[in-house]
Amino acid sequence: MPGAKDLFDESSMSFGSHLESLRTHLIRAILGLFVGVAISLIYGDTIIKEISAPILEALEKNSAKKASNPEKTDFWKSRWDTFQQYISGKEKPNQPKEKEDIKKLNSNTIRIKVSPRMIAQTLHEAYPEIYNAPPKKKDAEEDEYIYWTVSSDDIQRWNQAVKENYKPKTFNVQEAFLTYLKVALVSGFILASPWIFYQLWLFVAAGLYPHERKYVYLYMPVSIGLFLLGAFFCFKWVLPLVLVFLLEFNNFLNTQATIRLSEYISFAIMLPVMFGLSFQLPLVMLLLERLHIMNVKTYREKRRMAILIISIASMLMTPSDPMSMMMMMIPLCILYELGIWMCKMAGPQTNPFDEIAAT
What pTM was estimated for this model as a whole? Predict the structure, then answer.
């Protein structure tokens, strides 16, 4: 038709122009990444402290629980108590009161009157394979006592020694340095990601039609928001609960957990990323509906099958514990209903090329 508009008039570029544009935007993106990594290297220790905070808190709670109740408790009852504690925000029953312990140690020094026999018996009960039991006390024999003076400095040193056990460990000389670099690279990419994606978008947008750009402008903020929501939900609520759950298995098996720094950092980064990606479910559903692969009626009829697929995906995207699987599965079921609503609100799809050609 002589009067029809050529839809490719404003979107044609030579191959050389494409390569030049790609080179320019890649260089800008890489420079932005360097700036982000440089900033992260300066504040890397603060970032590692924030990432390590959940495991330190979980180890401290686990140690306090073992100290207050050394006998083996019912495992699944303990899990239910832990779940109720996170839901209600209340302390566990029989949890030691730290404030009461601090009040007893307010003075600068204290004197402890103790029997050597009592010390020997305590050491034997704690380490029977190392310390022998003290000889039995005779009827007419009276215990001798010794006085032990303890200062606040001594207590602080003991407290510091106990806290050292809570810290993640490194198992070779270079592990701490390599972990620092890894955290700096990941956090630097996150910091520079708006600039990096903006440069990639400038390259891709040159080959898109106006209506295609409109979809990106509309749904890209939604995608970023869902990803950040999933990552925040995981780091704030899921990760602490999962760590407590996993550490309880060490108590259940009567073993001591030794946390490796590099492995924990990888775990603490991977889990929020998996949650952020899984929270893209509504947009994936909308995309399939726009491509006429699925529709709202099919989504509703296949809801049971979708829940099964969600449960399998949650199992594959999280660690092997059931707690993290359930914490991912429940929000995804809610997001599935949100996806149905988004498909319904999007309305019927029209051909945008008809509108462009008519203008």
Answer: 0.71
Q: Give residue limits of the domains in the chain.
A: 15-49+169-358, 98-152
Q: Which residue has the higher pLDDT, 1 or 180?
A: 180
5 touches 154 (CB < 8 A) = no
Q: What is the pLDDT of residue 91?
A: 47
Report the DSSP beta bridge partners of residue 147. Answer: 113
Separation of alpha carbons 178 and 14, rounded Å:
44
Q: How far apart are CA 15 and CA 34, in angstroms?
A: 29
What tokens does 204 get?
Answer: 């891709």
Q: Nearest CA to 352 among 228, 208, 177, 223?
A: 208
Rounded to 5 degrees, what angle do the CA atoms 230, 235, 236 make? 100
Return the closest-CA partner of residue 166 out of 31, 268, 13, 52: 52
Burial 237-275, CB ≥16 within 10 A → b, else e: ebbbbbbbbbbbeebeeeeebebebbebbebbbebbebb
Out of 79-88, 124-133, 319-328, the most confident range is: 319-328
Looking at the chain, how many residues does it have?
359
**Residues 37/188, Cβ–Cβ less than 8 Å:** yes
Q: Which amino acid is at 289?
A: E
For the stretch 107-141, pLDDT in tens is 577 777 777 777 777 877 877 777 788 777 766 56
Average pLDDT over the chain reads 81
Would you state the structure tokens that stand for residue 324, as one six-digit string? 């993290």
Mean local confidence (pLDDT), 33-44: 96
